[in-house]
Design brief:
The protein is α/β, with parallel strands linked by helices. It has 3 domains: about 170 residues, 3-Layer(aba) Sandwich (Rossmann fold); about 180 residues, P-loop containing nucleotide triphosphate hydrolases (Rossmann fold); about 240 residues, no CATH class. The chain contains 24 helices and 21 strands. The strands form 3 sheets. It has an 8-stranded mixed β-sheet, sandwiched between helices. Strand 18 and strand 19 form a beta hairpin. Helix 15 packs antiparallel against helix 21 and helix 22 packs antiparallel against helix 24. The termini are far apart. The chain binds one DNA strand of 9 nucleotides through helix 4 and strand 14. It comes from Trapa natans (Water chestnut).
DNA sequence: CTTGTGGCA
């Protein structure tokens, strides 16, 4: 503990912080910055005038670091040293050092914009550049001007962008604290491999045969590649001559692995046995595997990116940045000197890899973040000019404004509305928070809460189609089917059934539903209910009786509420086939994702209009999680689209550009088209719906009986 | 006719 490098710099750090409102600390791995900085300033009296806050990008980190600091100070966790993460606040009035996720700090800033409880805010791991960290960086820049005398801000970062952060904070001082990593020898390939699975395999076996003991960590891009390599590696290791080298264990490691499989990497291997851990970038920062001496770095990573013009996400394999490459290499030097095999030439590292990873804020939809910033009521700030360390493109900001306007969160001049203010208080995507408010008007809040919670679950809850299993798929054993109306309704029905059987875990397992995910959903739903009750200052019906629901099997009100929430995520079916054209974004042809529960009518056709939760481009552009809606609900949204003026939303000039004019006239055509369709098909549509509803009811009651 | 890098309120 005493040997932590950072303690040798204590006086220097304290002195610098005393003289400067913002200081950047470059602390390499093992410097002890996460546990020591807070204690240093606690010792020097900074906790007398307020709490010292340390933010972490991840919940496990906030908890584990707080635990360690409490131990080192020999106090009970939750008293002088505490932490706060979603669903769990372990702090008390005695708390002087508080570890929290940056998401929690953002929420706190909503109710107390000056964050007056804190005398010092330490943004740890800022180089990871999470969306939340980036917003906090912008807020901190304002806050130190508001509280120059009684707030100190520390930002920890990586070597490669310390100066950039310093520039952002008016050339604040940068202190570098060495780490405690052992040297890592970097070995490059002569050329880029044609298949990096094969290349990883060769390198791994080479290490196994020729290098002394020590575990091998291999970075791959995703689950598929990991499974392939794990299989090949196991085969190869088995085929090696008995006694020619030590034993080997091959372990996969990625986020969709069940927790009990993930923790296997924490049990040390038996004597004279080498472990190969084949991992995604989860092992870059989130999980630290002890005993790794060799790292194999493919040089690639999977990244999700957002296209603001089309509203479409894609998951692409891209080259890592130098920061990531260095981070990966560092994983080999935690216990003793190690080696890192980069499966690309040094020239690629030098010339092609970006210095730092493109921050998340430039790769995501910003509707939620923009709403958040608007709700802070920073009167002097035009959102397009908000001072970000790396500003998002104006396309992304305009897209966010447009989406927010379509769901009534901001008015035509871009100011936040009362509806928007309430929405911002809910920890949800704007589409879902808007749905909740609308559902409350229609008397189906309880159902909407469930859907919002289900869609908040980070990973997919439903069973995926396993590839190696037989092709004919069995109908899902017990799962409801959304009455054919789509995936939102199915998610609702699944949760409601689980609720009825008292959250029985066995039922989840029997139906391949993720237990962890569903428990998370239950927590989220509870939290959302509490927040919305508090906002309404009254008794909202968040736990509607089952008998009530039974009478409305077509979920009409609920679907109407979804339509309001997803006003910017509409699609219209093509006349002759089941493809859809998106409305609102640059119009594109998209398909209903094949996993969807949306049902076709007797002619094999999907509904004329749907809302979708997400556009994702994989093998083709798909809508994931769709819900059938009626054309009459769409008309008012079309009208709004037609009158939309993005320039005004962003507080710019009122003049309509040529481009805007063209856009709105084509929207007008869209609208007319929709009305024609309405006339032609409304009767048929009504008949279909009645039919579907009846059929669904029949099936529902049949399903129930069969179970009993 | 088929997706899931990693996080967070």
């Amino acid at each position: 503990m005493v040997s932590l490098p950072i303690l040798q710099f204590e006086e220097k750090i304290v002195q610098t912080v005393q003289d400067n409102p913002v200081v950047v600390i470059i602390g390499e791995t093992g410097s002890g910055k996460s546990t020591q900085l807070s204690q240093i300033f606690h010792r020097h009296g900074y906790s007398k005038s307020g709490v010292i806050a340390v933010t972490q990008p991840r919940r496990v980190a906030a908890v584990s670091v707080a635990r360690r600091v409490a131990q080192e100070l020999n106090v009970n966790l939750g008293e002088e040293v505490g932490y706060a993460i979603r669903f769990e606040d372990r702090t008390s009035p005695k708390t002087k050092i508080k570890y929290l996720t940056d998401g929690v700090l953002l929420r706190e800033s909503l109710s107390n914009p000056e964050l007056s409880d804190y005398s010092m805010i330490i943004l740890d791991e800022a180089h990871e550049r999470s969306l939340n960290t980036d917003i906090l960086l912008g807020l901190m820049k304002r806050l130190v001007k508001l509280r120059p005398s009684n707030l100190r801000v520390l930002i920890t970062s990586a070597t490669l962008d310390g100066n950039k952060v310093s520039d952002f904070f008016m050339n604040c001082p940068v202190l570098t604290v060495p780490g405690k990593l052992y040297p890592v020898e970097i070995l490059y390939s002569n050329e880029r491999p044609t298949s990096y699975i094969e290349s990883s395999l060769r390198t791994a076996i080479d290490i196994h045969v020729h290098e002394p003991e020590g575990d091998v960590l291999i970075f791959m891009t995703g689950q598929d590649d990991i499974e392939k390599l794990v299989d090949k590696l196991r085969d190869k290791v088995q085929s090696l001559e008995e006694g020619s080298c030590m034993d080997a264990i091959v372990l996969p490691l990625h986020g969709s692995l069940p927790p009990e499989m993930q923790v296997r990497v924490f049990t040390p291997p038996p004597q004279n046995c080498r472990r190969f851990i084949v991992a995604t970038n989860i092992a870059e920062t989130s999980l630290t595997v002890d005993g790794v001496v060799y790292v194999i770095d493919s040089g690639y990573v999977k990244q999700r990116q957002y296209n603001p013009t089309s509203g479409m996400y894609s998951l692409d394999v891209v080259q890592i940045s130098k920061v990531q490459a260095d981070q990966r290499a560092g994983r080999a030097g935690r216990t003793r000197p190690g080696k890192c095999y980069r499966l690309y030439p040094s020239k690629v590292y030098q010339d092609e890899l970006l210095d730092v990873t493109i921050p998340e804020i430039q790769r995501s939809s910003l509707a939620g973040s923009v709403l958040y910033l608007k709700s802070l009521d920073l009167s002097d700030i035009d959102i397009l000019k908000f001072d970000f360390l790396d500003p998002p493109s104006s396309d992304t900001l305009e897209d966010a404004l447009k989406q927010l306007h379509l769901i009534d969160a901001i008015d035509t001049s871009g100011s936040i509305t009362n509806v928007g203010k309430i929405m911002a208080e809910l920890p949800l995507e704007p589409a879902l928070s808007r749905t909740l408010l609308e559902a409350n008007e229609y008397g189906c809040l309880s159902q909407a809460l469930t859907i919002a919670a289900m869609l908040s679950a980070e990973t997919s809850l439903l069973p995926g189609r396993s590839k190696h299993s037989e092709k004919k798929r069995k109908p899902p054993p017990d799962l409801p089917d959304g009455s054919g109306l789509g995936d939102h309704i199915q998610l609702l029905q699944i949760y409601e059934y689980w609720h009825q059987i008292d959250y029985h875990i066995g039922w989840l397992k029997d139906n391949d539903l993720q237990v962890r995910g569903m428990l998370f959903v239950r927590d989220v739903r509870k939290q959302l209910s509490q927040i919305i009750q508090k906002i309404a200052k009254g008794n909202l019906d968040v736990q509607e009786a089952e008998s009530e629901r039974e009478r409305r099997r077509d979920y009409k009100n609920l679907r109407k509420a979804l339509c309001a929430g997803y006003a910017s995520q509409l699609a219209e079916r093509m006349t002759l086939h089941n493809g859809y054209r998106t409305i609102g974004f640059k119009s594109q042809l998209v398909q209903v994702h094949p996993s969807s529960m949306l049902r076709t009518d007797d002619d094999g056709m999907f509904p004329d209009f749907v809302v979708y939760h997400e556009l994702i481009s994989t093998s083709r552009p798909y809508m994931r999680n769709v819900c059938a809606i009626k054309v009459s609900w769409v008309i008012p949204i079309m009208k709004k689209l037609e009158n939309l003026n993005v320039n005004r939303l962003s507080g710019g000039s009122d003049q309509v550009t040529d481009g805007e004019q063209r856009k709105s006239s084509s929207l007008l055509q869209q609208k007319n088209l929709a009305i024609e369709q309405d006339d032609r098909e409304s009767k048929i549509q009504a008949a279909r719906e009645r039919f579907l509803a009846r059929k669904a009811e029949r099936e529902q009651s049949l399903g129930r009986k069969a179970k009993k």
